Amino acid sequence: MGVHGPLDNGLLTGLLNPTIALALGAVFLVLWFYQRHCPYLAVLAASYWLSAAGFLLQYFTLPIGMAPTKLLSVTCFTIAASGLAGAIVTRYGRRVPFVAIGFLASSGLAAFCWFMFIQPDLTWRILAMNFAFGGLSLVVAAELRVVRDRGPTEMMLFVLSLLSGLNFVARTLVIVIAHGPYQSYDGFYASSYWTTALLSHALLSLLIALSLFCAAALDVMKTLKAEAYTDPLSGLLNRRGFEERATHLLRHCATAKLPVALVLADLDHFKAVNDLHGHAAGDRVIADFAAKLRSAAGTSCVAGRIGGEEFAVLLPLSDLGAARLFAEAIRTVYSAGSVDGLLPGTRVTASFGVAARTGEEGLEPLMRRADEALYKAKRNGRDSVRLSYERSPHGRSETALVVEPLKAG
């Protein structure tokens, strides 16, 4: 293996990029070991390591010869750039544009081979590969531009992708026009093109990696928060998660002047289910009810398991009548079905309390009124829905609680 040029400051500067790339690849690999469900992290690790290999092969010539070594170097760069582009797009839930990436990568390599082996021209080799890499960067920018709910990391990567595209295209054109053309590799690694390429690549690689590190860290934080706020048995929010999400939704509905209602549900005779059929069967009952509740609530509502066998659903854009229909539909479907693990013919029911928000009523008083309605349903035969009203009687300024019974069908 030969060294392309003396071991001088230029070479030491050139080793900056492979050193950075090797370190970044190692960090992404460690992240992947802890987040195996995120394969894009492994792709990032491989991409940065291939990038490091590409830079090293620019300085060290393999026994196969200079031209094949340069081709191998550019191939490493191309695969690394394609992997990086695909990984970033995947991270943000977009479909990887394989056709665009494949076209740009293969076109760049084909042009490089032409100007290396058929019609040797170093300047056109530089232009061909930089235009290909610039195109890949702009493809990433185009994909990130349409990502919904873009946060700071998405915006940062979008800007960096644009800057990377400009760096590969505009910088290369300006320097080639001003200082080119380049006839051979003699003195090339001390040229203004190579020096600016090294420095800009090092800076952009670090900034892109830091943005991706932040994105991965945010993923971990979201996962931990979801686990802290989610009830593992039902898959719904736990009490803490429900109260936080419900408070936020109530605040939003108050600002937008939208109606909102709360439905509380409690499984009837749940202790008897546990005693007769075992706790495993009781767990299946809770999971089955939660699945029906989640299916009916959809994504716009806030649903949670707030106690052992007690559930809550906050319904935006719903008045008392709409919430009553929602509760009655759940009650009917649940009482008519069966639960796996229970003896055939075993019927499990639930009772419901419904309250609609008045004014800018907070979550605590709203839950208190719904709970009082639920208590009425439990006390008066169960398997029913009761409604809570809050209104001012004639001649009095204070509010009074009125609970309207709704007989089970």
TrEMBL record:
It is an enzyme of class 2 (transferase). CDD domains: GGDEF. One of its GO terms (biological process) is cell adhesion involved in single-species biofilm formation. The keyword Isomerase does not apply. This is diguanylate cyclase. Its EC number is 2.7.7.65. SUPFAM superfamilies: MFS general substrate transporter (SSF103473), Nucleotide cyclase (SSF55073). Signal peptide: none annotated. Residues 258-390 form the GGDEF domain. One of its GO terms (cellular component) is plasma membrane. It catalyses: 2 GTP = 3',3'-c-di-GMP + 2 diphosphate. Keywords: Membrane, Transmembrane, Transmembrane helix. One of its GO terms (molecular function) is diguanylate cyclase activity. The chain crosses the membrane at residues 15-34, 41-59, 71-89, 96-118, 124-144, 156-178, 198-218.
